[in-house]
Every structure is written in structure tokens, then in C-alpha cells.
Write a structure and sequence with these properties.
- The protein contains ten helices and 18 strands.
- The chain is α+β, with helices and mostly antiparallel strands.
- The chain folds into three domains: 56 residues; 166 residues, 3-Layer(aba) Sandwich (Rossmann fold); 167 residues, Tumour Suppressor Smad4 (Sandwich).
- The strands form three sheets. Strands 1, 2, 3, 4, 5, 6, 7, 8, 9, 10, 13, 14, 15 and 16 form a 14-stranded mixed β-sheet that branches. The chain has a two-stranded antiparallel ribbon with strand order 11-12. A two-stranded antiparallel sheet has the order 17-18.
Length: 404
């Protein structure tokens, strides 16, 4: 047997061994999947029972005032962080008294803390996590929720949400109903998931800044600098109005995913998505899940400002765009570098330009009470009410009257 024949024989043996290993591993994977499916089915059955029990105990009359009902051993204590400047509060739809009363009618005794500043919210939430508060309920829009959530990461404290914001992207993604009564009923179930958060490393904060929705490098950070209109459904209009602000040449950036070899791409923006919805209920990451342990990255290769305007106009209208210049990846970590310093953002927070950005996922970092949300791989399918992906919660009839 000559040298070539020996080499071929060695390759055949290696192939046969790899195939045996594959069959063995496949069998293990199939067993694990069957066990997971069985456990998931059992979980769904238990959660359906909890949902039915909450439905059966719903108050048959309007919620009592928070002073009217005596506390019981079954009541759940919670810190309620209320933003009086959220849309639902400013519009006069809900007051802090109404919110506490509704929570009380569902067996949750809330300690009210009113937001006076972003710094104040972070301080309140951090202190609650430190002293082991079981449940912290953020009452407001996405910004308030993100401020609270950032201080609960890695703690035993669970986040609850009563959405009173303009867009309510997080509530929609996590399956939290948009009406007060329905969101309180969901909180009563106590059904939670551990969701992922993203982390951006900055020169000023080597420990990282967290985000729930989306981070971006390049254009998205510039747009955020033009105000909250970006987050309130006007991204496309802002892009159109900025004119010469983005007339510069497309940057060539180097992108490295996880432990892979780096690649180069010419792009105005890189989006790194944790939640499917962003800004004006835009499906910036239509397949993104908040509990899958990865980030959804999009590179917009060689797309001009006009091309980007068209793309974001389409997804803002709820359309799914198939453009071969846009490449998607699911990764645990991404490194974006450029010879020119680029700005970046993490949700609403904008950072000074840097030449290198490192963004990663922190899996299962935050416990949140959730419903049947599109942003979950394991949604609560028995949830009583599902929020719409855009627009207000549909009006429905209940034992208490009309909810919506």
C-alpha cells in the first residue's frame, strides 16, 4: 500500500468514526428534545391552570380602592415605580391611585414610588433589588421599563410591566396587554420567563451598558440624537429630514462574529437586535426572540441613505423586506471596528464615537412576568389577552364592564 492509499484509508476511517459519533449525538439530541417537549407541555398545562384560576377569581365589580380591602397572606407585595409623565398618565387615562387599586383587586399590594428623574428610577430599582424585593412593577413607557430593568439584571427580583407609553414595544414583544385591568390580571398570574439582555462595552463603561430592544452602530445613533421623535414612530421622517447630515460616504467597517474570522462591509449602519419591535412598532428584527440566547444582527451592505429610507419605510408599514444586500446573523457577540470613529446607541442611550464597539448577549439575565408574546421562544400560550403588534388594545367586555 503506497502513501496515497494509506492517506485515503485514514480519511475513510476518520469519516466512519465521525459518522458514528454523529449518530450517537443525534440519538442524545432526539432524547433531549423529547424530554424538553414533554417538560414544555407539562409547563403549559400548569400555566393554563394558573390562568383559569386567575380568571375565576377576577373581581365581579370595579376594583376596590387600595384602602378598602384587608391584606391577606396570599397577597403579593410589590414596589410600583410610576412615571407620571408617561402618555397614559398625561392623557388622564390612569392615575397612580387607579393603578394601585387595580393591582390591589388582583391581590397585589403596591408600594408607590413616583418617578422624578431617570437617575431616581435607577436608584429606586437598584435599592429594591439589593434588599431582595420580590416584584418591581414599572408603570410607564419603554424608557421607564428599561431604566428599571437595567438595575434588576442578575438579581432575584422579578420585573412586572404596566404599559402606559406611546409605543409600548416591550409590552407588545413580551405579550403584556395594554389595558390596565388586563395587565394587572397578567401580573396576578405571576408567570415569568428569564429573558436575555444586550450589553454594549464603552470607553467610559468597561462593564457595559445594557439594552433590551436594540443597539446600533452608525446611522441609528445619529438619528437618536435628533430626539424622541425617533422612538415615537418618526424614524423614516427623521431620515428624510436630516438631508446632508448623512450625505457622507458609506463607512467600511470590520465585523467579527463570536470567534469567527472578521469580514469587511460597506454600510451606514449595523443593527444588533434583542427584541423584534423598535421605534414606531417597527419590525426591525421580525424573528428576534428575547429568550434565545443570541442577538439578531443586520448588515446593510452598500445601501445608500435613500435605500435605507425605503427599507425602513417598508418595515415601519409592517412589511417584511427581502433585500439581498441585507445580511442577517444570530450571534452571541459582535465586534465592529472602523478607521473612523462611529457613534453607537443602546436603546435610547447614545454614546460618543469610538473606533471599536463590542456588543454581546447576557442570556437569561432578567426575570419578567410575560404573556403570549411574539418576542418569546416559550410564550405563555394560555395568556388571557394578547396585545396587538400596533395600535391600542382592542376593547372587550368583561365582568367589570368594558376593558380596552
Amino acid at each position: 500500500m503506497n502513501t496515497d492509499q494509506k492517506a485515503q484509508q485514514a480519511k475513510r476511517r476518520a469519516l466512519a468514526q465521525a459518522q458514528r459519533q454523529q449518530r450517537q449525538q443525534l440519538k442524545k439530541a432526539e432524547v433531549a428534545r423529547a424530554q424538553l417537549n414533554k417538560a414544555t407541555q407539562k409547563l403549559s398545562t400548569i400555566e393554563a391552570t394558573i390562568t383559569r384560576l386567575v380568571q375565576s377569581e377576577q373581581p365581579a365589580k370595579p376594583p376596590l380602592s387600595e384602602q378598602a380591602a384587608a391584606k391577606t397572606a396570599e397577597d403579593r407585595q410589590a414596589l410600583v415605580i410610576f412615571n407620571p409623565k408617561s402618555k397614559g398618565a398625561i392623557d388622564g387615562n390612569y392615575s397612580s391611585k387607579q393603578i394601585l387599586a387595580c393591582l390591589r383587586s388582583y391581590g397585589i399590594v403596591g408600594e408607590l414610588a413616583t418617578k422624578t428623574s431617570c437617575k431616581d428610577v435607577r436608584k429606586l430599582a437598584k435599592a429594591a433589588a439589593k434588599r431582595g424585593v420580590d416584584l418591581v412593577i414599572a408603570v410607564g413607557g419603554d424608557g421607564t421599563i428599561e431604566e428599571v430593568a437595567g438595575q434588576l439584571i442578575g438579581s432575584s427580583t422579578t420585573l412586572g410591566i404596566i404599559p402606559l407609553g406611546t409605543m409600548n414595544n416591550l409590552a407588545r414583544s413580551l405579550g403584556v396587554p395594554l389595558s390596565l385591568d388586563d395587565s394587572c390580571a397578567l401580573l396576578r398570574t405571576g408567570l415569568s420567563r428569564h429573558i436575555d439582555v444586550g450589553r454594549v462595552i464603552t470607553a467610559d463603561n468597561p462593564d457595559g451598558v445594557y439594552f433590551l430592544e436594540m443597539a446600533g452602530v452608525g446611522l441609528s445613533a445619529h438619528a437618536l440624537n435628533f430626539g424622541e421623535g425617533f422612538m415615537k414612530g418618526q424614524w423614516v421622517k427623521l431620515l428624510e429630514a436630516l438631508g446632508n447630515a448623512f450625505a457622507s460616504n458609506i463607512d467600511t467597517v470590520t465585523v467579527a462574529y463570536d470567534d469567527e474570522a472578521p469580514l469587511q462591509v460597506r454600510t451606514h449602519v449595523v443593527t444588533i437586535v434583542n427584541s423584534p419591535l423598535f421605534a414606531g412598532n417597527m419590525f426591525i428584527g421580525p424573528d428576534a426572540k428575547m429568550d434565545d440566547g443570541v442577538l439578531d444582527v443586520a448588515l446593510y451592505g452598500d445601501m445608500s441613505k435613500i435605500d435605507l429610507q425605503h427599507h425602513f419605510r417598508m418595515i415601519a408599514a409592517g412589511k417584511r423586506v427581502d433585500d439581498p444586500r441585507i445580511t442577517f446573523r444570530r450571534v452571541r457577540r459582535i465586534r465592529v471596528s472602523s478607521s473612523a470613529a462611529l457613534a453607537a446607541n443602546a436603546d435610547l442611550e447614545v454614546f460618543a464615537p469610538q473606533q471599536v464597539w463590542e456588543i454581546s448577549i447576557v442570556p437569561a439575565a432578567l426575570s419578567v412576568i410575560v404573556g403570549n408574546g411574539i418576542g418569546l421562544t416559550l410564550p405563555v400560550e394560555s395568556a388571557m389577552v394578547v396585545p396587538p403588534l400596533t395600535g391600542p388594545q382592542p376593547i372587550r367586555a368583561t365582568a367589570n364592564g368594558v376593558v380596552g
